[in-house]
Write a structure and sequence with these properties.
By secondary structure, this protein is an alpha+beta fold. The protein has helices at residues 2-12, 14-17, 51-78, 99-103, 139-143, 147-151, 179-182, 208-213, 245-251, 309-334, 346-349, and strands at 81-85, 110-116, 125-132, 188-193, 196-198, 200-201, 259-266, 275-281, 292-298. Helix 3 (51-78) runs antiparallel to helix 10.
Length: 354
Amino acid sequence: MMNSNTASSSTANPDAAGSPDPPAPRRSSKRPKYSKFTQQELPACKPILTPKWVILTFLVVGIAFVPIGITSLLASHDVVEIVDRYETDCIPVANRTNKVAFIQSNASKTCTRQITVTKHMKQPIYVYYQLDNFYQNHRRYVKSRNDEQLKKRSKTSETSQCEPEDTTPDGKPIVPCGLIAWSLFNDTYTFSRNKRQLTVNKEGIAWKSDRDHKFGKEVFPSNFQNGTLRGGAHLDESIPLSKQEDLIVWMRTAALPTFRKLYGKIEVDLEENDIIDVILENNYNTYSFSGKKKLVLSTTSWLGGKNDFLGIAYLTVGGLCFFLALSFTIVYLVKPRRLGDPSYLSWNRNPGGH
């Protein structure tokens, strides 16, 4: 009886005899879930570049690019552009040995120029100023501004990153602050034809996105150009920054040291051989860094301003494609070869391996 009870109790209580081993933990796998995308098994086009296809491709590209290049060149040549460099001619002969001293003096900087219209110019005629050897892309210059100050009235005291043109000597914030605004271009141009003044429209010369989103309608200039060293133009403190389009155009910095910026638009036609009298104020100091100043009058085409590069690029690529198509055609006709011919493999051409 004792043995029977012991066996019975052992059977009833499995823990007394020991429990079985716990299941082994499941190993995590980094193998991605199978899909045709992850295994790169999606349907794909794998063309075989036969000689006929290569010749046809080059021929089609050449046929497409050459007309585009010719059309682009013709459009560029339709643009009438007049360029007048004046930074030396507008310095009196007696002062040309020390141009920097003259431009920094209080002497009159008024200069009169005459421009002859070489070809009929249809309105609108865009007036640009061009600066050479002016590096607006310099890192310290580009960073010397505060975008929050330019668009928010509550941030007008923010002058971080604007050094050295951040505050006045008595600690008042400069609006707009920074070197970019401080160096605002300040040459002015007045045009006349047959003693009748030509109005220059300066509205709408800046990007609409800049006017609406980057320069505030309730932000007004203050303490600007009040220091001992004046960098450029003054700003009317009664006009908000969103209406100061000369400033907005200047604040969009150029990527290259030679650049043009829009000054305004003449909204009347100019006839061939018209004499345009220009009275300009030669105020901007480019003489300290051997810079050049040019006045540019230009029309536009459906492709924009005068620029031959696009047309030349299309013609070059199209001509090269024509040349390659012709070369491959000659090779294919003179010395044809069967597609996938194994006799051209290196180990078949040289069985000895030498």
